[in-house]
Design brief:
This protein has 7 helices and no strands. With 182 residues, the chain is mostly helical.
């Protein structure tokens, strides 16, 4: 029961940080957009930003479970879900760092800057948006690495099947995204 409460609290914390980040970015943009159309788009952006961690959790849990079924016949998804929240801790830390650093973006007028200049802006902690992207990428790598260790321990799989179970579904979706962008 404690694992489920921890999972719910962790996902709600990450969702809140995503939502706060969306509000910060919106407040840095100028209010030159006419009418209610921008308000609707803004609301949809906030909703999708706050639901992103939950959708990620559902995607990773279901695809990892399906991949584990390939390697092991009788598996209960509750065993995976009860320990999986631990792998989301790097995402929470990354979201907190991003939220703290993005508060410094309010000091700049983003309309007067080019895209290359925006990525090079030094914000709080002397971090740039490119640095935040690198921190985010590292946190996602840690998420999948920790998840593969959890899968190995909980389901007593070998190292390679546990890595395949955690990394392959997301890599396939990433590659499909690249193919469809071409």
């Amino acid at each position: 029961m404690k694992d489920w409460i921890a999972t719910i609290l962790l996902l709600s914390g990450i969702s809140t940080l995503y939502l706060l980040g969306e509000i910060l970015i919106e407040s840095a943009l100028p209010a030159t957009y006419p009418g209610n159309s921008f308000a609707i788009i803004s609301l949809l952006g906030k909703i999708s930003a706050s639901l992103t961690p939950i959708m990620l959790y559902v995607f990773i849990s279901l695809t990892s479970y399906l991949m584990i079924l390939v390697f092991k016949e009788e598996v209960k998804i509750s065993h995976l879900l009860s320990k999986m929240w631990i792998s989301f801790i790097p995402i929470l830390i990354s979201s907190m760092i991003s939220y703290f650093v993005l508060q410094g973006i309010l000091n700049y007028d983003l309309n007067e800057l080019k895209e290359s200049e925006v990525l090079a802006l030094e914000l709080r902690l002397n971090l740039t948006l490119s640095d935040l992207k690198m921190i985010s990428n590292i946190s996602y790598f840690l998420l999948y690495s920790i998840l593969s260790l959890i899968i190995r321990d909980v389901f007593e799989l070998e190292f390679i099947p546990s890595v395949i179970s955690s990394f392959v579904p997301s890599l396939l979706v990433f590659l499909l995204g690249i193919i469809f962008r071409m």
